[in-house]
Write a structure and sequence with these properties.
Layout lengths: L7 H15 L4 H13 L3 H6 L7 H15 L4 H5 L1 E4 L2 E4 L12 H10 L6 E5 L5 H9 L4 E6 L2 H13 L6 E4 L12 E6 L32 H10 L3 E10 L5 H10 L6 E4 L5 E5 L1
Parallel strand pairs: 3-4, 3-6, 4-5, 6-7
Antiparallel strand pairs: 1-2, 7-9, 8-9
Helix pairs in contact: 1-2, 1-4, 2-4, 6-7
Bound molecules: glutamine.
Keywords: Methyltransferase, S-adenosyl-L-methionine, Transferase
Catalytic activity: L-glutaminyl-[peptide chain release factor] + S-adenosyl-L-methionine = N(5)-methyl-L-glutaminyl-[peptide chain release factor] + S-adenosyl-L-homocysteine + H(+)
Protein name: Release factor glutamine methyltransferase
Length: 281
């Protein structure tokens, strides 16, 4: 008989308990995502068929993933997938895993930039999350997304293809290096590295498995934010917007820098935890 001794409900309970002891953040969600991945089903199926028996192969695969989660590996690396702005994005260890906080940046961009034909540049696109989310909402925006890391460029292109947004122009570039000097954008967005190298978060949780180059910047995390702010002035249209994600403690310093650089209409939007997260100018 091709049945293990595990029903869906039992496997979820067991996985959740095991994960909870080691990585207590979201153990039930983690167990559900891993089981959905192994069974190739959606969340509704888990609730609809709690008595459904796993095959021995499914049970083995699932508990092997649970064990890797217990070792600290991010769920997104185990499933190869992370949802952002309702888009299922392929993820791998060469980029940052898209975070819900970054949806604040997408929301600000959609709110402030009203032209249907806007030209947009995303710097440090990683999985392509921000650029693809914007394209999904504004099909006529002309979007360019760049990343310095070759594997990230490949991953972003793969996501653009598989989600049907192959019109997004994805390039390898060290910030603005591959952008022609005469190009002007109505919107420049970035979620650059902004953690300080001694940030305690780097030693905890999922970030340990993410690339340092996507997380850490010099000058207490401000170096890339400031570099982008300075350079962007030469690439924005008159009245164009710059929108930068940053750490909760970096808002006031960044606003000051932007003001000195000649930006106007400077404001900071809050994330879901009411922390300063995205500064626009
Ligand atoms: N928000 C991320 C974190 O705290 C950092 C992302 C970044 O540096 N761009 O893990």
């Amino acid at each position: 008989m091709n049945e293990s001794r595990w029903t869906i409900a039992q496997a979820l309970m067991r996985g959740r308990t095991q994960i909870e002891a080691a990585v207590p953040d979201t153990p039930l969600l983690d167990a559900q995502l891993l089981l959905m991945h192994v069974l190739g089903c959606d969340r509704t199926t888990l609730f609809t068929w709690p008595e459904h028996m796993l095959t021995p192969v499914q049970a083995d695969s699932y508990f092997a993933l649970v064990a890797r989660r217990i070792d600290g590996h991010p769920v997104a690396h185990l499933t190869g997938l992370r949802e952002f702005w309702s888009l299922p994005l392929a993820v791998n260890p060469s980029t940052l895993i898209p975070r819900p906080d970054t949806e604040v940046l997408v929301a600000q961009a959609l709110e402030k930039v009203e032209r249907p034909d806007a030209t947009v540049l995303e710097l440090g696109t990683g999985t392509g999350a921000i650029a693809l989310a914007l394209q999904s909402e504004q099909p006529n925006w002309e979007i360019t997304a760049v990343d310095y890391v070759e594997d990230a460029v490949a991953l972003a292109r793969q996501n653009a293809q598989s989600l049907g947004f192959s019109q997004v122009n994805i390039l390898q570039s060290d910030w603005f290096s591959a952008i022609p000097r005469n190009h002007r954008f109505h919107l420049i967005v970035s979620n650059p590295p902004y953690l300080a190298s001694d940030d305690v978060h780097l030693k905890q949780g999922d970030v340990r498995f993410e690339p340092h180059s996507a997380l850490v910047a010099e000058d207490s995390g401000l170096a890339d934010l400031i570099h982008i702010a300075r350079e962007s002035r030469d690439f924005l249209t008159e009245g164009g917007w710059l929108m930068l994600e940053h750490g909760a403690e970096q808002g006031s310093e960044l606003r000051e820098v932007l003001q000195k650089l000649g930006y106007v209409q400077i404001y900071t939007a809050l994330d879901y935890a009411n922390l300063e997260r995205v500064t626009c100018a």
